[in-house]
Amino acid sequence: MNYKMEIQYDGTKYHGWQRLEKFETVQGKIEDVLTKLFGHKIEIHGAGRTDAGVHAKGQIANFKVNEDKKEEEILAYLNKYLPDDIAVTKISRVDDRFHSRLSAKGKIYSYRILNSDIEDVFNRRFVYRISGELYIKEMEKAAEYFIGEHNFKAFCSNKHFKKSAVREIYSIDFVKHGDEIELIFSGNGFLYNMVRIITGTLIEVGQGRRKAEEIPNIILSQKREMAGETAPAKGLCLMRVLY
Amino acid sequence: MNYKMEIQYDGTKYHGWQRLEKFETVQGKIEDVLTKLFGHKIEIHGAGRTDAGVHAKGQIANFKVNEDKKEEEILAYLNKYLPDDIAVTKISRVDDRFHSRLSAKGKIYSYRILNSDIEDVFNRRFVYRISGELYIKEMEKAAEYFIGEHNFKAFCSNKHFKKSAVREIYSIDFVKHGDEIELIFSGNGFLYNMVRIITGTLIEVGQGRRKAEEIPNIILSQKREMAGETAPAKGLCLMRVLY
């Protein structure tokens, strides 16, 4: 049997998705509960390895077992024993060939910015707060340059990345709710820290520290040091995996 | 000078509003910062003494000092030194006769219920989750009986309450957002735990454990044991104080 899960988590206190020996991770927590349920070691495969502090509303993971357990039983067991900052919202049996990461056609990420001098105490774990003026129009102009297929090496934290850094960004949408600006990225794949570095660069444009017109040269340079700072993990959320 | 503050807090980790010797409270935190700023002991008066675990989006408090400091200076200092689960959103100079609690004409509270088998990991500190079916129509019918001026002694946790327990509830509105039901209470005043006991009673109606038509007799009984359970603190939020 191949089971596919939809997962939400508040990543604040985890060392990211991927299982680690000495730290609490989301993958580790879920595997521990499944291992207890099935009575033997279960390994799950996540669609995206979110970093420490990054959240998810629509992470996808799958796992294979010989046992034929009912989906509802697995779902109820997981939600009973998982900590309250991780929830499995759906579970379904899928074709054996399905693999969360390898079958993915794209992903949607959200980055939430709060442009205010005052903390939003209810959302402080999920937004990056920036004081002072932000020129959103300039940020939108800058965002346009990222759309399409590019080599995004300048927007990747992994210096030893050997494979192709060519990715396609389908869209970057700006959604405003009061003082909050949510940047919604969709694309066929994202390099390590890519959304956070693009966001950090867009913020520098919004603060008037860079010009929107500099973006094409930064992309072409393929040099990490040409791009902006990596925006903090807490504003980022994996919203959906496209198949 | 008499300064009026608007305050938001995530009450999860506090022993409520009111200053206590051995526990962290919201009043205590704010007084400590103001005492540091002014260099002498400051006492603040809150409009409502929210319980441990209760939140606020619009708590009001005032304090009197002889010093004539700029509002912006006090606001910036408070938000710099307060923990990130407490924020002062506004500060203004008001007439000497203004007193947060004594001048209040009414209050608005919100109680958030999540009717789902699955945790909402992002709002888990702010909603009370209930599995299984809830008959909202019946809850709305039951809520109608509370509107108006009544003796609410049956909905008060303080058994030794000596003063008048007569209060007027102006409205109880049900607002639905997906699986969430937000109950919005407005009234001229609320007794100790009154919103939580009314909500607990309405939930029992929603679960079919009581009939809406029982409410008038519960009110008339003036007996706490006739009413339902006290709903958990975490769903409750003081939204606004009316003057």
Question: What's the short version?
Answer:
The structure is a homodimer of 243-residue chains. With 243 residues, chain A is of the alpha+beta class.
Overall radius of gyration of chain A: 19 Å
Unreliable residue stretches of chain A: none
Distance N to C terminus of chain A: 19 Å
| Count of strand segments of chain A | 10
Overall mean confidence score, pLDDT of chain A: 96
- The dominant shape of chain A is globular
Strand content of chain A: 25-35%
Helix content of chain A: 10-25%
The oligomeric status of these chains comes to homodimer
Biggest sheet statistics of chain A: 10 strands, mixed
The number of distinct helices of chain A, counting runs of at least 4 residues, comes to: 5
Q: Of all protein chain pairs, which has the greatest interface, and how many residues does each chain bring to it?
A: A-B, 21 and 21 residues
Strand-pairing-aware structural class of chain A: alpha+beta
| Topology pattern of chain A, helix = H, strand = E | EHEEHEEEHEEEHHE
Could you characterize what this model shows?
The structure is a homodimer of 243-residue chains. By secondary structure, the first copy, chain A, is of the alpha+beta class. Chain A is built from 5 helices and 10 strands. Chain A has helices at residues 26-38, 71-81, 136-144, 194-206, 215-221; strands spanning 2-9, 45-46, 55-64, 86-94, 106-115, 128-130, 148-151, 166-177, 180-187, 236-242. In chain A, strands 1, 2, 3, 4, 5, 6, 7, 8, 9 and 10 form a 10-stranded mixed sheet that branches. In chain A, β2 (45-46) and β3 form a beta hairpin. The model of chain A has no long low-confidence stretch (mean pLDDT 96). The interface between A and B is medium-sized, with 21 and 21 residues.
